[in-house]
Amino acid sequence: MSLLFRYLFQRHARLLMLIMCLGLGLYLLTEIVERLDIFIDNEAGMDLVLKYFACRLPGIVAQILPAVFLLATVVVLCLMNHSRELTALQAGGIAFSRVAFILVICGAFWGVLQFSCSQFIGVQGDRLATQIWQEQVRKRDMGEKLIEDVWFTEKGWTVSIQQLRLSGKGEGLSAFHVKEGSASDIDIIIRAARVEADADGWIAFDVVRFFPETFKREELKEAVLPVQQDPELFFATSSVSLQQLPIWQLGEAIAQLGEAGSNVEGLRTVWHGKIAYAASLMVMALLGAAIVSWNSNIYIAVAISMAGTFLLYALTMFGESLGQMGTLPPVMAAWGPDALLLTVALSRLVFVSVRR
Length: 356
What we know:
With 356 residues, the chain is of the alpha+beta class. It has nine helices and six strands, in the order ααααββββββααααα. 65% of the residues lie in helices and 17% in strands.
């Protein structure tokens, strides 16, 4: 690890943390103002308010990190240019492209942290924050949430449930199994009064099982259906919160829904978008270097970087919308904003390198 790398990384990290604290402060202040009357009306204590926003914190960090990284990059390079450090580096044979490359490595490091915050800590934090908000602040029982007429297919089974609760308990199960290699030969039919999702499968209670080929009928207290469908997926699909699942669960949901015949192009766009958003930090490193190479005035550079941030967010939302509508392929819709900004940044940096 070179001295230049350590110097740039440490200086960039200090500025990034400072700007992050300012950004979090503004974000939290805005959200507190919006929700304060609800907390007061529901007599929520200070400990509950602090717990709610502590759970929200990782998700907020993941959301604003690309903007914070770009601002930190621009400020660091502007300060280095103002103090003639960049000139000294070039005089010593260290090209500006090497500085930009080090910042890209910094972007990769912070991109991994962003991905971890958004897909690990952030997801769990958002779930807990939602539970606190609904159950402890708004006094709503999330366990009573249910949906009707649930259908899915898996491993040759076609399953219908009249009512399903978020806890995985349901009533009115009907299921039939089709022979392997056949499209219509049914060999097992199951009806049950109750059903409950379990780690080993779905457990049906008060079961009547039919075997059409032999006209055999059985009555059982319980039977296990060898299907692994996650009940939360049905609720996530109905409330459009499926997109908030961590990337590995979203991948499983895409596979299961695809096998069931659902259109999953929109979810594929979201899946790619989660990776593309983390990778955007490396793009931001090059974009920041390109901005400073064009104008090193810190006020102008910061203003341009903020415009670049808004452009990234706008293009990301626009791309996701086109991907979910099927207008663009998922990969193009998710990675298009990164590719566009990367092209602009590299074009500027190549032009500066050739001119010098």
